[in-house]
């Protein structure tokens, strides 16, 4: 998958994962990798800046806690604005992918 | 226990963010590494390999810090940007430009460019010429006064100063030639006849005051707007009886020929050298003004009048001696003119007159049964024709070559001068705003783009200075070292005319040279630039290699 396509979808993927519940950065990265069957893998230099940008925009909220091993961890949860943004992004993505599928004659056999 | 926090802190460096936020980010990234490390150990990976896996979480620290800062600040660019030219390289480029400024010829090249922009019409303003005249009067230096007199736009004032110069040094009486003809912008307030009389008295053996008097007489009879065709059919019908023909006859009979061009050139060269005019461009400009004294077409028309009317009429009336003297006078006049003409076109017209004279003499001798003399005249006519043709061809080939190379260099210098000005301003902006800033800062999109652009300015300035210097170098000889008016006109004028005018005035030529001849050097320069930037980026990347322990 091209970097541009990956980068363009990262915000939506992060928001979608956080819809299931709060997660820390490592978990988010791991889940993207696992759930995509290792097709998608974001490096740290992309993932964390994306999280920080989403937080700055108020779409996710981060908070510090202490993990079982005693380490301080920052977990991110979806905000109301983030949920709304996710819905919008999903709709746009659906529209976009359907258009692409139609033109490119992609079939899901 | 691996200290990932320390590794992250060292590689990430200081971020232009609040200290608390920076600590949070460092902790979070260290956690990421720690998680990856622990996961690898749990999967049975040996410790060293697990450590490598953890470090592999972040390949490009520079990119990581940039992305983080951009995300945090919501702005586009952290300065300095990796695509910007490193500060040390830019300062080195500016240092080289300053070093170039120590070279007098380079200073002359830059000064000349400034001169060309600020004085588009002429090298010296009216007030500067007045200043030179005042200095000359104060120091009793007739040459300074004569120089100002010759070149002042106010011809009446110029004539007044010329009289003062001649008063100080009568050897400068020839400058009266510049106050005689309307084509030299003579003012009605200038007493041209008085100047002619003065020159004839001072230089009685010279043909040129008579030639000037002839032309002046003719021009005074013809309205200024009709002076493009002075020698029309109507005039030529009655020409033999006009004062013009009388003065022309006196010119042809005069034993000397001095068109004053070399005297004027020497005066210009001397004064320009002394007042530090800068470049040979000023000399070219003033030399162009002294070309064309006297009128070549008038001389050819008078030669035609003799060979087609006065001579044949004398022959028809069996005044063979008169006809022979007329033709011989033409030949002798042409020889004097040939020897004295500064410019090639002056010699070309002399050869033409000389050849016609020999041909008419040959015909006259033939008709009078003087066969051997006729044959000698035919041989001389042929010889003049051959030497004239050879000289014309040589001059043509040389002239074309010098003209083309001069124009090419002039255009390159014109482009380089503009580039030097633009990149010079951009380099000053760079030096003022970015050159001394070592601390990182975040720049908005527009400011970031501008900063990135001006970071290239010092290098581009160095390149344009080199281009300007290279193109101007052959034309930057000191004014005092120029040899003659003809040499200046042939060797330097094409360059300077092209440099002053720029490529816009030569559309077809511009297409030919810019597209045809400058395309490959331009593409080669672009390739060097791209390779240079790539090399610089590579150097920057090597310098930013991460710390792993």
Essential attributes:
heterodimer, A: 109 residues, alpha+beta, 3 strands, B: 549 residues, mainly alpha, 1% strand
Distance between the termini of chain B: 12 Å
Order of the strands making up the biggest sheet of chain A: 1-3-2
Helix content of chain B: over 70%
The shape of chain A, in one word, is: globular
What is the strand tally of chain B?
A: 2
Uncertain parts of chain B: none
Uncertain runs of chain A: none
Radius of gyration of chain A using CA atoms only: 15 Å
Name the structural class of chain A.
Answer: alpha+beta
Topology overview:
The complex is a heterodimer of chains A (109) and B (549).
Chain A (H helix, E strand, L loop, with lengths): L2 H17 L3 E2 H11 L8 H13 L3 E7 L5 E7 L1 H25 L5
Antiparallel strand pairs in A: 1-3, 2-3
Helix pairs in contact in A: 1-3, 1-4
Chain B lengths: L3 H9 L6 H24 L4 H9 L5 H13 L3 E3 L7 H15 L2 H15 L7 H14 L2 H10 L3 H14 L23 H11 L5 H14 L11 H6 L4 H11 L7 H14 L5 H11 L5 H21 L3 H21 L3 H24 L3 H65 L5 E3 L1 H10 L2 H16 L12 H17 L5 H11 L1 H25 L6
Antiparallel strand pairs in B: 1-2
């Amino acid at each position: 998958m091209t970097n541009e396509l990956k980068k363009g979808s990262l915000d939506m993927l992060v928001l979608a994962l956080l819809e299931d519940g709060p997660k820390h950065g490592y978990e988010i990265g791991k889940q993207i990798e696992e759930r995509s069957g290792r097709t998608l893998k974001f490096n740290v230099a992309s993932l964390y800046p994306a999280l920080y940008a989403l937080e700055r925009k108020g779409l996710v909220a981060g908070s510090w806690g202490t993990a079982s091993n005693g380490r301080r961890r920052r977990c991110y949860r979806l905000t109301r604005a983030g949920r709304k943004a996710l819905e919008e992004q999903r709709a746009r993505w659906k529209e976009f992918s359907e258009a692409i599928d139609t033109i490119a004659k992609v079939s899901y056999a | 226990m691996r200290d990932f926090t320390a590794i992250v802190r060292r590689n990430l460096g200081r971020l232009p963010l609040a200290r608390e936020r920076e600590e949070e980010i460092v902790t979070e990234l260290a956690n990421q590494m720690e998680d990856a490390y622990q996961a690898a150990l749990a999967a049975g990976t040996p410790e060293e390999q697990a450590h490598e896996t953890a470090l592999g979480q972040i390949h490009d620290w520079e990119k990581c810090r940039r992305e983080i800062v951009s995300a945090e600040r919501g702005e586009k660019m952290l300065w300095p940007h990796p695509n910007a030219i490193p500060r040390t390289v830019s300062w080195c480029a500016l240092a080289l430009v300053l070093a170039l400024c120590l070279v007098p010829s380079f200073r002359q090249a830059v000064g000349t460019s400034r001169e060309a922009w600020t004085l588009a019409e002429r090298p010296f303003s009216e007030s500067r010429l007045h200043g030179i005249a005042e200095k000359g009067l104060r120091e009793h230096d007739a040459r300074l006064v004569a120089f100002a007199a010759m070149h002042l736009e106010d011809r009446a004032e110029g004539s007044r100063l010329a009289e003062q110069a001649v008063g100080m040094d009568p050897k400068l009486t020839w400058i009266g030639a510049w106050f005689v003809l309307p084509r030299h912008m003579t003012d009605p307030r200038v007493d041209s006849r008085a100047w002619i009389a003065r020159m004839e008295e001072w230089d009685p053996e010279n043909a040129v005051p008579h030639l000037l008097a002839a032309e002046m007489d003719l021009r005074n009879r013809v309205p200024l707007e009709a002076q493009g065709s002075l020698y029309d059919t109507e005039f030529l019908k009655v020409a033999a009886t006009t004062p013009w023909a009388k003065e022309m006859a006196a010119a042809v009979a005069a034993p000397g020929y001095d068109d004053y061009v070399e005297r004027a050139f020497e005066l210009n060269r001397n004064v320009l050298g002394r007042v530090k005019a800068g470049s040979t461009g000023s000399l070219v400009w003033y030399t162009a003004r002294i070309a064309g004294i006297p009128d070549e077409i008038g001389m050819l028309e008078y030669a035609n009048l003799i060979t087609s009317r006065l001579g044949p009429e004398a022959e028809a009336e069996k005044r063979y001696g008169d006809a022979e003297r007329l033709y011989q006078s033409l030949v002798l006049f042409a020889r004097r003119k040939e020897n004295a003409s500064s410019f090639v076109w002056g010699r070309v017209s002399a050869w033409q007159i000389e050849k016609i004279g020999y041909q008419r003499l040959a015909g006259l001798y033939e008709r009078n049964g003087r066969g051997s003399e006729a044959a000698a005249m035919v041989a001389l006519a042929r010889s003049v024709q051959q030497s004239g043709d050879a000289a014309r061809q040589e001059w043509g080939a040389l002239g074309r070559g010098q003209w083309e190379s001069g124009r090419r260099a002039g255009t390159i210098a014109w482009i380089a001068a503009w580039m030097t000005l633009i990149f010079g301003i951009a380099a000053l902006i760079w030096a003022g705003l970015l050159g001394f800033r070592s601390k990182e800062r975040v720049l908005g999109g527009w400011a970031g783009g501008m900063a990135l652009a001006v970071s290239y300015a010092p290098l581009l300035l160095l390149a344009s200075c080199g281009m300007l210097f290279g193109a101007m170098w052959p034309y930057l000889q000191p004014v005092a070292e120029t040899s003659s008016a003809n040499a200046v006109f042939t060797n330097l004028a094409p360059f300077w005319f092209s440099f002053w005018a720029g490529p816009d005035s030569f559309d077809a030529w511009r297409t030919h040279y810019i597209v045809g001849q400058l395309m490959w050097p331009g593409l080669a320069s672009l390739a060097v630039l791209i390779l240079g930037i790539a090399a610089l980026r590579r150097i920057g990347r090597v310098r930013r290699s991460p710390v792993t322990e």
